[in-house]
Amino acid sequence: MKQRLLFLIMALLGSSLAGAQSLSLFYEGEQLANGQEVEIVSELNEDPYYEMIAFAQVKNNTDREVSVMVRRITHSVVDGTENQFCWSACYPPFVDVSSVPYPIPGNEMTPEGIFSGHYLPQSKTGTSVLEYSFFIEGDPNDSISFVVKFKVEAVGLADRKEKASISNAYPNPANGMVNFDLDLGNNERNARLVIQNLLGQPLLEQVIEPGAKHLSIPVSELREGVYFYTLYIDNKNIVSKKLVIRR
Questions:
Q1: For residues 212 and 191, what is the distance between their CA atoms, to the nearest angstrom?
Q2: Please, which pLDDT band fits residue 232 given cuts at 50, 70 and 90?
Q3: Cβ atoms 132, 100 nearer than 8 A
Q4: Is the pLDDT of residue 157 over 50?
Q5: Three-state DSSP class for residue 10
Q6: Three-class SS of residue 200?
Q7: For the whole model, what pTM was predicted?
Q8: Alpha-carbon distance 163 to 186, whole Å?
Q9: What pLDDT does residue 156 have?
């Protein structure tokens, strides 16, 4: 009887410990282990507003609503670069901890775009390493985190001369139609523009005709929110920028 009781107590204790972590993380639809590292790689871009973005969704594993905070932990950054994060609201680069918690209902996951980590290379090459820790308000030990390596690689001068470019979208925020100015350089074949949601899923795609200097795309079918548009040349991601749809 004593052995059976001891076994029951140990089983209950093990079950409690296994479920102690209230939160879990998902990146590009895949669940991350606590502290897992992901890498985002980009070629050098001389646009001062160019940014690399890491998105994640947080799931509440409990059956009660929890208020969740975010802490940014800087492991290493390339001099002259900038970074910030958004947790429902966007915080300036000098803020490391969100000031307002985000409520997540029991057994629910944050919507797309609630969290994003932003890195602006500022035309600098190298790798910056940042960690984002999500924790229950009032209980920082009940947390989960992931590490992002933002890696910017140099390109040769010849490649840079042939690099295609695209303007910032206008108007932005957009409503019914969004416009872009183009400079395809020597890359006039197999060019296309893709509008994606915050998970990188393509929603609209427009083939760009050789020699085109301007492009207009109707976005009236897109819901209000934040999107990204990406210029592809020969199926290679040349540059991605932010687009906001507002009704």
A1: 10
A2: confident
A3: no
A4: no
A5: helix
A6: coil
A7: 0.64
A8: 8
A9: 52
Strands (DSSP E) along the chain, which ranges?
A: 23-27, 30-32, 36-43, 52-60, 66-76, 82-87, 89-90, 102-104, 115-120, 126-136, 139-153, 165-166, 177-183, 191-196, 202-208, 214-218, 225-233, 236-245
Q: Which fold has domain 23-153?
A: Immunoglobulin-like (2.60.40)
Round the average pLDDT of the chain to a whole number and report it.
85
Helix (H, G, I), strand (E, B) or coil at 232: strand
Given this chain, do its domains 23-153 and 162-245 carry the same CATH topology? yes
* Fold of the 162-245 domain: Immunoglobulin-like (2.60.40)
State the pLDDT confidence band at 183, using cuts at 50, 70 and 90: confident
What is the token pair recorded at 92? 């300036």
The Cα–Cα gap between 81 and 122 comes to 5
Mean pLDDT of 225-247: 85
Domain residue ranges in the chain: 23-153, 162-245
Residue 163: the pLDDT is 64
Q: How, if at all, do strands 225-233 and 23-27 pair? A: unpaired
Please state whether beta strands 191-196 and 202-208 pair in parallel, antiparallel, or not at all (unpaired).
Answer: antiparallel
